[in-house]
Amino acid sequence: MQNKSKFQAGAEKTAQKQRQIQQTIDKTDEKKPHKESAKAMQAGARNHPQSPVSKQHLTKPGKEADLEAQPMYDAPYYKGSDKLKDKIAIITGGDSGIGRAVAVLFAREGADIVIMYLNEHDDARQTKTMVEKEGRKCIAISGDVSDRKFCLADIEATVKEFGGIDILVNNAAFQLHVPDFEDLSEEHFDCTLKTNLYGYFHMAQGVIKYMKPGSAIINTGSVTGLMGNKDLLDYSLTKGGIHAFTRSLGTHLIPKGIRVNAVAPGPVWTPLNPADKNVKAIAKFGQDTPMKRPAQPEEIAPAYVFLASPQCSSYITGEVLPIIGGYIGG
User: Fold this and answer.
1) Residue 171 covered by a domain
2) What tens digit of pLDDT does each residue of 46-72 get?
3) Is the model's pTM score more than 0.90?
4) Active site (catalytic) residues
5) Is residue 92 part of a domain?
6) Which domain holds residue 140?
7) Cα(237)–Cα(263) distance, integer angstroms
8) Could you give the number of structural domains in the chain?
């Protein structure tokens, strides 16, 4: 009992010390109320737009050419160093947004590019032009990645043109918010799963037989697959599935020497989001991140270079790399 009293006395002494510390902080809080900075964080080689970037709403599938505030994708301060010299890369959804930025940087690192896209022909032509300005070849092919026959035909066309495939970037996606779960139709749900999961499955399964040891598959996941999103139930489901698919396939393909990783971006200024959100919502896009703004595609693309390059990431497989503009503490 004496020991117990001694312990209790020690506990009370500690509690008293904690209360004193609390009182000091309380007084500090009263004198200096915490105010978050309204300015967006700028930590790159050049400044990027603060939110709101735009208040424009696009119709599906969303064309980059129609955006008044054009995404920044060309990364002028990024210098290539042959990290992907003479590699052959297929990029789904490569016409715009993250896919376009990845295509440009892959080309700057020495890769020839095949971009797959739905029907955004003007965007695809612009991406092709930008890749060719980097001194590399580019083929643009229109079709639906949820169609297995199209995916396999594109893979065969790539091999016929370039002789092989070294890198696959699964990036094409369908996203559309639904405020009430009861309004999520089976047709909508099916469209999201067919594009975001089946498309990745078709492409990954189709390229493997052509890939040599040292090849890489990179999947585009999302912060919604890590944290969920109350208005993007189906989309979040697919992105969480992509993360699990990445980890599982990464382990499965180790004997073949093929690495599989994913990038999980937070809000990024691409046509995908103005084609999802209404004007009011798009005006706030990216403001909830600690950095107070959405990323630009050129800020995300170097991660794909890193994960594609055998010089940079030869010991990395099955990983999901979040690029979300910081974490909010609870």
Assistant:
1) yes
2) 767 666 565 566 666 666 666 667 777
3) no
4) 235
5) yes
6) 81-323
7) 16
8) 1
